[in-house]
């Protein structure tokens, strides 16, 4: 048991996703002998979300494989898992969390891992049946049932990661797929136009119809959606609609408690909020990143996987500096890739490539003043460590060396 954490203490974790579950696991691994209470709104025990738009949605992965722990793990490790229970409010002076079950729970340390919720389209017809959002296992189950028969007309609103992954799944099932995106390329805000255009080529090559530079103005239908109206006035027939226009961090609980919030619950590099007894991790946390010298909020799987344990160790009084390079992966059709760093427009001044871009076996590097700020390996494997080392190095590296496959990546740092 860590010093300064006597067994009488109670640590409460609000949010039973990957970050919350891994925090609970880490508390026990680190020897904490006190009470651990894990509160989750969903009736499902904690699970990982990437399969929802990948393997599980495609019918290649069972729901059981997405769970973080087996069902018996929580009792075996004396973790009080409260499924189907919502945290209603935080009483900071009394160090209590009010729960929807009616039972308040006192805390010595509190972790907010409340995640994020999908942004909703506020347009006419948005309440029609057949319009899907994807965040939970239940959402994915319903969407899989809608897509799996094939032969349906599917319209996807938004060409971000969720939009493209669900579009690929829908097409793989044999559906007719149209993607509507207000930017000039898919993934424009995540990767910029240079690499976003490569994902446009990928989807077009697999029969996806892309309607770029236009948004969704509304939906038509009598009870169930039958068409999507674009901002350009076009009417696209639809049996199934998927909306993937991003998420909002679930900060309501923190805001009501008076914690500092701005596009997430603000935390320092040790995951601590403006209240020294309260921490935040995962999608909801706007974390100060020492490498970047500013706060960032990362919505990806790896951030929950690693951020939850980091917060748990900080709750135990350990010295923590959470400075992992942001990491993300995707699988779409025959393309698999890993992204390290931040490649959003405004973060870089040029993109260079190493390898076979037309054959979709390459590495892309985003550079700012000849420094690598992000790298993406596409169908090229076992290079993530080297790419992350390049991002961390903050060294000026000429584009000629980065693009030369004869120069090993390890030699560039």
Task: Note down, in words, how this protein is organized.
The chain is α/β, with parallel strands linked by helices and 413 residues long. The chain is built from eleven helices and 26 strands. Strands 3-2-1-7-19 form a five-stranded parallel β-sheet. Strands 9-16-10-11-12 form a five-stranded parallel β-sheet, covered by helices on one side. A five-stranded antiparallel β-sheet has the order 22-23-26-25-24. The radius of gyration is 22 Å and the shape is globular. The N terminus is likely disordered.
Question: Descriptors for this entry?
Answer:
413 residues; 5-stranded parallel sheet; alpha/beta; 31% strand; 11 helices
Furnish the topology, listing elements before pairings.
Elements: E1 10-14, H1 18-29, E2 35-40, H2 50-53, H3 63-66, H4 73-76, E3 79-83, E4 87-91, E5 96-99, E6 105-106, E7 109-112, E8 116-118, E9 131-133, H5 137-147, E10 153-157, H6 161-172, E11 176-181, H7 188-205, E12 209-212, E13 216-222, E14 224-230, E15 235-237, E16 240-243, E17 247-249, H8 252-256, E18 265-267, E19 278-280, E20 285-289, E21 294-296, H9 301-315, E22 327-332, E23 335-341, E24 350-356, E25 361-368, E26 371-378, H10 384-393, H11 399-403
Parallel strand pairs: 1-2, 1-7, 2-3, 7-19, 9-16, 10-11, 10-16, 11-12, 18-20
Antiparallel strand pairs: 4-5, 5-6, 8-17, 13-14, 14-15, 20-21, 22-23, 23-26, 24-25, 25-26
Helix pairs in contact: 1-9
């Amino acid at each position: 048991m860590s010093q300064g954490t006597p067994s009488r203490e109670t640590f409460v974790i609000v949010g039973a996703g990957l970050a919350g579950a891994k925090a609970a696991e880490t508390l026990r691994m680190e020897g904490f002998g006190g009470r651990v209470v894990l509160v989750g709104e969903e009736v499902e025990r904690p699970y990982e979300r990437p399969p929802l738009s990948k393997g599980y949605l495609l019918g290649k992965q069972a729901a059981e494989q997405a769970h973080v722990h087996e069902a018996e793990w929580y009792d075996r490790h004396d973790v009080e898992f409260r499924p189907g229970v919502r945290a209603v409010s935080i009483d900071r002076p009394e160090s209590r969390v009010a729960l929807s079950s009616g039972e308040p729970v006192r805390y010595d340390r509190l972790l907010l891992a409340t995640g994020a919720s999908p942004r909703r389209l506020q347009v006419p017809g948005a309440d029609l049946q057949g319009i899907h959002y994807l965040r939970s296992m239940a959402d994915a189950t319903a969407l899989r049932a809608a897509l799996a028969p094939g032969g349906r007309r599917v319209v996807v609103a938004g060409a971000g990661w969720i939009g493209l992954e669900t579009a690929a799944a829908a097409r793989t099932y044999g559906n007719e797929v149209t993607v509507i995106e207000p930017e000039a390329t898919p993934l424009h805000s995540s990767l910029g136009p240079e690499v976003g255009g490569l994902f446009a080529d990928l989807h077009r090559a697999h029969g996806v119809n892309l309607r770029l530079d236009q948004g969704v103005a509304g939906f038509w239908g009598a009870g169930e959606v039958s068409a999507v109206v674009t901002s350009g006035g076009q009417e696209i027939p639809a049996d199934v609609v998927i909306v993937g226009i991003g998420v909002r961090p679930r900060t309501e609980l923190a805001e009501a408690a008076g914690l500092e919030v701005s596009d997430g619950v603000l935390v320092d590099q040790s995951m601590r909020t403006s209240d020294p007894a309260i921490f935040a991790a995962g999608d909801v946390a706007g974390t100060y990143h020492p490498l970047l010298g500013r706060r960032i909020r990362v919505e990806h799987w790896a951030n929950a996987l690693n951020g939850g344990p980091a917060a748990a160790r900080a709750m135990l009084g350990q010295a923590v500096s959470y400075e992992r390079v942001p990491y993300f992966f995707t699988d779409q059709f025959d393309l698999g890739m890993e992204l390290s760093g931040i490649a959003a427009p405004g973060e870089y001044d040029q993109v260079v490539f190493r390898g076979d871009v037309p054959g979709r076996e390459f590495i892309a590097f985003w550079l700012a003043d000849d420094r690598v700020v992000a790298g993406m390996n596409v169908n090229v494997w076992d290079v993530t460590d080297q790419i992350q080392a390049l991002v961390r190095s903050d060294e000026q590296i000429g584009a000629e060396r980065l693009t030369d496959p004869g120069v090993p990546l390890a030699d560039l740092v």
